[in-house]
Amino acid sequence: MITLYNWDLSVNCYKQRLLLSILDVEYESIPVDFYPGWEHKSAEFKRINPLGHIPVIVDDGYKLRDAHAILTYLASKYDPSGRWYPASDPHLLGETAQWMLFAEGTTNTASAARLHVNLGYEFDIEVLREGAHELFRALDEHLWFREREGLDWVTSSPHPTIADLAIFPDVMLSEEGGISRLDYPAIRRWTDRVRRIEGFVVMPGMFEAAKGAPK
Amino acid sequence: MTEAWHPVAASSDLPLRHTFHGQLLGRELAIWRADGGFVNVWENRCLHRGVRLSIGLNDGRELQCQYHGWRYASRTAGCTYIPAHPADAPARTICNRSFLAFERYGLVWTGESPAGELPTVEVLEAADPFGLRNLPVNASAELVIEMLHGHGFQPNAKLDNFGAEIAVQSYGEHCRVLSAMAGGSTTTVVFFVQPVDASRSVIRPVMVGVPEPLVQTDVLRHHNAKLTELRDRIESEAARLPALQPLSAAIEQVPIHLSEVPIGAIGRRKAPLRVQVARKWQTATDIVAIEFESIDGQLPTFQPGAHIDVHLPNGLVRQYSLTNGPGELTHYRVGVKLEAESRGGSASLHETVREGDVVAISEPRNNFPLRRDSLRTVLIAGGIGVTPLLAMAQALHHNDLRYELHYFARADDHVAFRTILDELGDSTQAHLGLSPGGTAAELERILDQPGHAEHVYVCGPGPMLEATRRIAADRGWPDEAVHFEYFQNATEIDDTTSFEINLARSALTLRVGSGETILEVLHQHGVSLGSSCEQGACGTCSVAVLDGEPLHQDVYLSEAERELGDQMMVCVSRTNGKSLTLDI
I want to staple A167 with a disulfide (CB 3.0 to 4.6 A). Which of A103, B116, B398, B424 is the partner? Predict the structure, then answer.
């Protein structure tokens, strides 16, 4: 059984909940009072993760921290189709790693802006917003050209990967950080597609997408 | 600028079931394509609580607000359903603000109050348009237009070279046509600039002529790269200029009465719509289907279960239920059965009215509203009573709600609207040629197991309705879960009593004599009250009773509603007492 150290309002914890739900894997959630309890900085929690952040998973005694590392582990272990983390295809694997790094960028800008607005973190909000817009411009352009090729996801795979799931919540909640998506129509269409993946679940602040048109 | 047409989206920005977030001159827009292709451009706020409709759910026919679930129809933006009032029909006047929209050159065009026709650009009329990637720019449209004069790109045949000669032509305030010439080849691109806000724009470039398929991606990438360079230059320039105040678009005030539900109709038997018979065909033995199309503008919103009054050439007024599916607003479709004992209504529609004729109709009125929070909906139709249930079945079907439609008819050739039934598929079942006893047995089977939050809707001839209501009650269906609509009131109306009516709001006391109805007396004294069938079947003239005991002679109210005694149908109902106090 997987144990997830979890906070409902954390995008990084949500990324794990989303993948686990899509892969239909059962897990136990241990709530960490991130705010206002600051529990992830407690001595007790630092015994679980010395860096004092969430999420952390423990799977049959195997412990792992850092959102994007956990996604890699869970997809490799629990997706027998190998599509969510395409380890056997060098091109797709390279693209997945590239867009996972991109997701570090969106987390450190768009989601950081959200922490500033919602929880009062002391960041230079204008720098974060500018940084997020720069990344969103690049992502919108990328996805627009993907659509022209008949492709739906950030990598060139016909199937979504963990890179899509890693970027998605940072984008989907950007408006909480004061970052509008009005200028990014291709990103908005991609968020519809992510929200239509079978097994998709929401987190607070998001809604499900309308069902797709019948084929 | 509010009088000009502007592009606000690329047609390719609007895949089915998506809601696009747009903005024009500071005003936010929710833009969505219905499954039939129609493009809706609406104010980006639900008039209920102001939440953005761009996060709403486009179900292909209606847009549903994420906040309280209000649903709005494609084309009219009229409200079709309010989940907090599942048993009520939303007032017809609840309507979001919508704007005229057209698609041309692969772009969606609209305007706040556009004057005149959507303008054409001659070069784009002569060849097929090819949409390039649109680019948002953080700068005013004026600055973008000015700097487009320094923009450069290569003709399609010479993409790898540089230094093509550029000719610029102005086309009105927000459009520039640039031609790139090099080595004998020329490529022309029309750049439309959309003023999003005081200091934000979108460049929407359209190439004249479609490039060879093999080079299309290269062409798209070339223009995207060149425009990105231009955007960098424009934004650096904009950063040097003084910042502009964002535009503020005036949001129209919603009249306060629109937030109240439902609203009683005022005035009687109005027929404000003129429609043309676009199609008339035999859909079953003795049943014709008629499609009415608007002569001038958009037909108003309807809800499943709604009916219209049709004013016939012979002066009669008859009610017909709409059979339209959700969002189907290009026409109203009704079914008319030729009654053997027609008093001239059905005979007139069958024999006299022809395709091309103009008739007057009322706006749709809904006295048979459909709940969409039911866990299972059982629709029971007898003969021509299928018409309102067809509209309901299509709405339920489209919303993926669980339902079954039981259609009792005399024989196979009496089954109307087969095309719709075929689309509904497995959820419909025909019961043919049953005797009254056989019908009752079948109804007992259908209504055998009432469940929590399940509802029955029945429409058909009087005896069948009574049987259904009786069987449903016997089987334990609660009164409020059984909804019905009679075609007509077969009750023998007693109009011999005479009494007084006190009108609480109008501060009038009037006398109703024998042989007169309350409705007639009200109209004689200039009291305005909506009515439709005037035989106690449709529910339009329902009035709240403040005091006195009504003698109900209608077939609209359920037993429970009758017992409450707080409303009555004034076209047929009266009192055996001395007086009634009415909330008029």
Answer: A103
